[in-house]
Amino acid sequence: MTPLRLLHRRSATTLAMDRSPTAAVSALIATHYQHGGLESEAATYFVQAGDQARALFAHQDALHFYQAAIAALNEAIQLCQRYGDRHYEAALRSNLADMLHQSGDETAAQEQIRQSVTIYADIGQAHDSWQAEIWQLMEW
Asked: Any residues with CB less than 8 A from the CB of 20 and at least 6 apart, and which?
C-alpha cells in the first residue's frame, strides 16, 4: 500500500470519530476512504452525506452524494470480481440495489438483486442468507 493511500485511510478513520458529522464532513470522510481504496466504506459515508443533505432540503447535493455512493459500490463490485470474492460481491450488489431503488431506478435495482441471488445460489450460500434479497424483489 502506498503511503498516500495509508494517509487517506488514517484521515478517514480520524474524521469518522466525530459521532455527528455534517454532510460536508461525511462527504470528506467518504472521499478519503475512496482515495484510500476502501470503496464500500466510502459508499456508506456518501449515503450518510446524501441523507444529511436531503434532510436540509439540499436536494442537488443529496443527489450528487447518492450518485457518488452508487459509483463507489460499482467500483467495489469490480474489485470483488477481480479478486474472486463472490460472497462480498453478492452483498454489495444487494446494497447497490437498495441505492438504485431509492434513486428510482427500479429496473437496475431489480437486476442487481437478481445477480445477487444468482451469486448466492452459485456459491451454495444457505437459503436464509439470500431470502431477504428475494423479498426485495417482491416488495418493489
From this structure: none
Please give the tally of structural domains in the chain: 2
The CA distance from 93 to 29, in Å, is 22
- Identify the domain containing residue 30 by its residue range: 1-83
Residues 67 and 94 in one domain: no
Based on the fold, state whether residues 54 and 108 are members of the same structural domain: no
pTM (predicted TM-score): 0.78
Q: pLDDT tens digits, the chain, 140 residues: what are they?
A: 899 999 999 999 999 998 888 999 999 999 999 999 999 999 999 999 999 999 999 999 998 999 999 999 999 999 999 999 999 999 999 989 988 888 889 999 999 999 999 998 888 865 555 555 555 555 65
Same domain, 3 and 67: yes
DSSP 8-state symbol, 19: S
